Amino acid sequence: MIRYRIDTKTILSIENNAINKMLKYCQKKEFYESGGILLGKCRKDYSEFIITDVSEPCNRDKRGRYYFIRDKESAQKVINEKWQQSNGEINYLGEWHTHPEIIPKPSFLDRKVLKECLINNEYPFHGLFLIIVGIEGDLYVGYQTKEMKNLKQLQKI
Questions:
Q1: In angstroms, how far apart are the furthest CA atoms of the chain?
Q2: How far apart are CA 141 and CA 94, in angstroms?
Q3: Catalytic amino acids?
Q4: Paired sense of beta strands 127-133 and 91-98, if any
Q5: What share of the chain is helix, strand, coil (3-state, %, to 5)?
Q6: How far apart are CA 134 and CA 96, in angstroms?
């Protein structure tokens, strides 16, 4: 499990099975970007968010060397199934995808899409997470709320 600090009162934990699923898709040479959604839960006191699972790319996603656009219907189906299987405990926590770079960082479009998601939709939690996987397995982990002007990169603890 890897942990990140969100603020003085809150941490993000990412379970190993979720990390391993994302790492399977590290972009090598001419591979296309891959991605999916982050699934997990939050403690009742909001002291910890836990990413328990991630969805994997599906054949309805749009993918290229420098872009990934996930299919919304397929993602919503996964969210609904996980929510029902967990009796409402597991929910959507954000997005993940790969980048063809050693040290991954969000593009302008990544930042814009996350902000638009926050503005145009309602979520059960305060914000959304963004994870970007680099070609050697390094992770960029970010968090943003509607109130935040910019995506905040989280530091490992």
A1: 44
A2: 11
A3: 33
A4: parallel
A5: 20, 35, 40
A6: 11
**Total domains, the chain:** 1
> Which has the closest alpha carbon to 62: 35, 39, 38?
35
Domain with 131 in it? 2-156
What torsion, rounded to 10 degrees, do the Cα atoms 81, 86, 92, 95 define? -80
User: Domain containing 120 — which CATH number?
Assistant: 3.40.140.10
CA nearest neighbour of 22 among 104, 111, 127, 144: 104
The model's pTM: 0.94
Spell out the per-residue pLDDT of the chain, length 157, in tens.
999 999 999 999 999 999 999 999 998 877 898 999 999 999 989 899 999 999 999 999 898 888 888 888 999 999 999 999 999 999 999 999 999 999 999 999 899 989 888 888 777 778 999 999 999 999 999 999 988 989 999 999 9
